[in-house]
């Protein structure tokens, strides 16, 4: 296989990105089929596929007819939102199971069953909504437009430039955008539902997927950027999952008929999750600061 420094001189931006786009669309359709069959990991992987496509279409927008790409980005966002509840349910289930690992008494066992049943109910309703979305004519229209876009991308003249020349300014812009979100998130202590963390998480995903797409052009430099933004994404994702668990436990206390012992056990679990959430904030700050290193971006000047 040709090395990155050779590939970037041989390929135009369009030639480099066209197979990446086609592969990502194929990946989305694959996980769509898996989701319909309720396959393990299908919801998570479908959402990952939508994020990759959204990041690529938005990040590389200067190379496309923006009217077409922006419409598809909005469609992908709607699909990810419609499917999102199922991913949240699985994340909450995993964390709730972990909370009960050291809870071996009869009261904890009963409470665990009640919470699992509640999650099964929520998960079943979520899966039905997901399939309803996939079966809707609007989704069918969207996927047809997406397939056409991948088969014949509406390239602008800039896409005919050598890959390194056309894509370096895009990567530089994405990283600058991400760094700005990081700096805003670090400016003041964040609350659990802070909008800055949400925006930083979105920016980290986009920076990661754009950087990963360009490893073939810029080699280890882009790979390091992808890894740094992924660490932020994972840290903020863990924070989001813990926040969802906290909300689920509050909701369970309102909706489940619990005796006094079960209510006390649930309160203890809520306290443990609150401590876990506080610990995650330390990890978030460390990873945010790690992305602002000059060594990650100096080569793009």
Written account of the structure:
- The structure is a single chain.
- The protein is 82% helix and 0% strand.
- With 301 residues, it is mostly helical.
- The two termini are 28 Å apart.
- The model has no long low-confidence stretch (mean pLDDT 90).
Descriptive tags:
301 residues; mainly alpha
Shape: globular
Structural class: mainly alpha
Low-confidence stretches: none
Task: Give a short account of the largest sheet.
Answer: none
Helix content: over 70%
Q: Any idea what the radius of gyration is? A: 22 Å
Cα separation of the termini: 28 Å
Number of helices: 12
Overall average residue pLDDT: 90
How is this fold's topology laid out?
Elements: H1 4-10, H2 13-36, H3 42-59, H4 66-99, H5 106-135, H6 137-151, H7 163-187, H8 195-213, H9 215-218, H10 220-255, H11 260-290, H12 294-297
Helix pairs in contact: 2-3, 2-6, 2-7, 3-4, 3-8, 4-5, 4-6, 4-10, 5-11, 7-8, 8-10, 10-11
Give a brief description.
The chain has 301 residues and is an all-alpha fold. It has helices at residues 4-10, 13-36, 42-59, 66-99, 106-135, 137-151, 163-187, 195-213, 215-218, 220-255, 260-290, 294-297. It is globular, with a radius of gyration of 22 Å.
